Give the backbone structure.
Amino acid sequence: MSKNIALRVEELLSKMTVREKIGQLNQPETPLPNELDAFFESVRKGEVGSILMSVGATAGNDKQGAISNDFYNEIQRIAVEESPNGIPVLFGRDVIHGHHTVYPIPLAMAASFNDKLVEECYSDIAQEASNESIHWTFTPMLDLARDPRWGRIIEGTGEDPYVGAQVAKAVVKGLQGDDLSQDGKIVACAKHYIGYGAAEGGRDYHRTEISDYSLFNYYLPAFRAAVKAGVKTVMSSFNDVNGQPVTSSSYYLDEVLRGKLGFDGFVVSDYDAIIQLKKQGVAADNATCAEFALNAGLDMDMHDKCYIDNLEKLIEDGKVSMETLDEAVRRVLTVKMEKGLFEKPYCERKEYNKEAHLKNAEEIALESMVLLKNDNNVLPLKKDATISLVGTYAQERRSHLGSWCIDGKEEDVKTLCDALREVSTGKVWYSKGTELGWDSSLVNSYAADVVVLALGESWSTTGEARAVSDISLPKEQIELIKKIKLSGKKMVGLVFCGRPIAMQEISQYLDAIIYCWHSGTKATDAAAKLLFGEVSPSGRLPATLPRLATHIPLYYNITSSGRPVDCYYNENPAKCYVDSIPTPCYPFGFGLTYTQFKYDDLKVDCDKISLEDIKNGKKFKVTVVLENIGDFDAKETVQLYLRTPVAKWMRPLRELKAYNKVFMKKGTSQVVTFEIGFDELGYYDPQGNYTLEKGIREIYVGENCLTENKIEITVC
Ligand code: BGC
């Protein structure tokens, strides 16, 4: 924070009444028409610090009104011209993976393994959002998730802390830029802090048990990265961790977030979370909820009015100190000043290049989709092939936009059928297909050269409060696949899903599969380009796809078991489940291309390095020679995994520590280099201290987490 801002904040703070201070911590939602007069009056009194620009507890699931700049500018005018100290209001909306242009769901964007492109997309998103009065958005969502039943897995980056950290940095940089006060930049919010993704059974809002060792090594790294990237706000999560609601936990909010991670922005509660402390059974009344939350370090109250209704009395009674209140207000005012709201409180529309945004949306959709299977090179399809296109998702628009898409329009999405017909020079026969009895799908498939099945799940089974108990594809779709198989034709499955699903059954019937996710406005254009080979697929799985729904949780970065079970890496069913093969259907980091890459000559530039040197910043180089030996130009994501076979605390069998996505023309080769040092070689002990030990490190470099391409180095 600049000195200037700090001084201005203190000056302002010294002029504010207690009521106005509390007002800065109050975030009501957009008023309904019948509430307008009263609402304007509270703005006039300085009782509204921020507005949540939506209505309802699960804005990602329900239709929201379009934004009117005139309306928000009028609110701002009242705040600036008529409230006692003229403090502008901070407007916040959930712009999770796109505003008008919709990009793939965040889980899919993580599959692109292209941080630079993710950053560019979020810069586009900030530009569109800031054009419509939005100063602040509640993204990135950084909840590590290992249970795909959880509907909100779509909003995060999957099962890996390193991917989470890379995406966190990219999103924060894209949204906030280097200077938040610039036009087109908005405040980011890292959420949901902390452990929300560990909800038991994938049941939304449920309890979590997270040891401190797991907390520091798995759940916190993405938040740590966001803080390091300068994220200005953090949203606390609904859940409890080990019996302690995060909303009222000074351990998680103050000690860990501010103390250990060094966060210096403000914390906003999740929607109504403060008042929910009563339901969670740690407070008996609203006043106690407010007391516990503010004293724990939670600065802004989203929606439930607990602060505005109770803090004055709590201050009078000495249950909350004036210093605590001032500190929270100071943090909020600082962010407002850093955003430049005092200089430019009103929204003015700026021209932006919509075509460029659509181009990025298509590019990231192309890079996010994952080719899982391609037996006998069924793909890419010939452009003049006759295609039997089957399945309801061939005519679907809304689901491609995914959950948490408030301002995108389904009319902007092409159906898959239209998108294929645009690229194809042959015939595309569409039939919805039924699982039983006669319909044209089977006849079409007999007569066609190839079948494309449009499979998936609806957006409305994903997102907040949308957990499912079974992550298999619906039975009807499996039956449809079986029926079409009777045609004897090669079958290509496009899977439009928001979460990882169980793949074994469908995998056995399909010759080729592209996992297309819910990929936004340009989803179907991207799918068509990949199908016809205009671009070679390059997405990689940020979350494991299990064989069976009953195998979850299944994630790659497990520690070794004492008896050599290690289910993820060991095919022997007798050593894990007696009734099924426990290994993933498609492991973390997996994804094929239309070409073939050869990895050769893995090297480290030294076989020993001293602990002291590493602590002093020395790095060593790992190199591998990569050759495109196939027939297509393509991108490969070279992945580097680490294993520390002996350490004080058990370390995972593999942990991703670096990746590099490279484009290579067919027939070319190049040396891919990684630099490894302090940040990669250590881990956190349960007290949150970063620990670096002497000993061997195994370094694996390859195309996914199962690679056996290994080299060792000793830290001495
Ligand atoms: C969600 C948050 C969201 C907030 C505001 C809550 O229900 O958990 O992710 O930002 O609502 O819409």
